[in-house]
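Form 7-S
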Amino acid sequence: MEYIKVTKENLESEHICCAISGNNDIQVSSKKAWLADRFDDGLVFLKSVERGKCFIEYIPAENAWNPIDADGYMYIDCLWVSGSFKGHGYSNDLLSACIADSKEKGKIGLCILGAAKKKPFLADPKYLSHKGFSVSDEADNGIQLWYLPFSSDAPAPKFKEYARHPHVDEDGYVLFYTSQCPFNAKYVPIVEQTAKEHNIKFKAIHIDNKEAAKSAPTPVTTYALFYNGEYLTNEQMNDAKFLKIAAR
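Output:
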């Protein structure tokens, strides 16, 4: 497999995800705008030259949009290989490239979000364990911080204390989200409108800067839905899924 690094110079011409299409798509424009602003923070987006979900996105942990203490680490936003790309070792290729790049840049290890059991849009714990990662911290909602240190004396990364205990002091549904995930640009407005039409109390909080992300009351900032103060899910949803949850 051949891979290509997305940069400021080729961002407009490169395809970034098979779930979205051309640059006029709101999901594409939202994601590319988010990426463009992150490249100066050291973000790397490496993907297959083939069209599809086969990529890794990572950034120095100090600049990650997550409430973690992981100085010196490289934080993996997303490692996603699916569909016909699965089973060919491409995940290993991408992770190996990330490790080599991180070591060259003087990082002390990698970290990534996961869970004891596979959750949507989070890394597969079986794969992480197989590749030598282990859990360094865990929040009350089961979200875990996994890490791969490059030396035995590297300090383990941790969640911020408030992120370790996800909670909000508001009734109804409260959603925290960022533009890191392209699906949000399309589906968050749909859920907002659905909630309004059904008189469901719903508030969406768009995290639009690193400082706000690092202060979020949840380890997952790309999408974190709460109900009456308690954490529900990190799974992006459409109107049908939201109404199903609301009917419980």
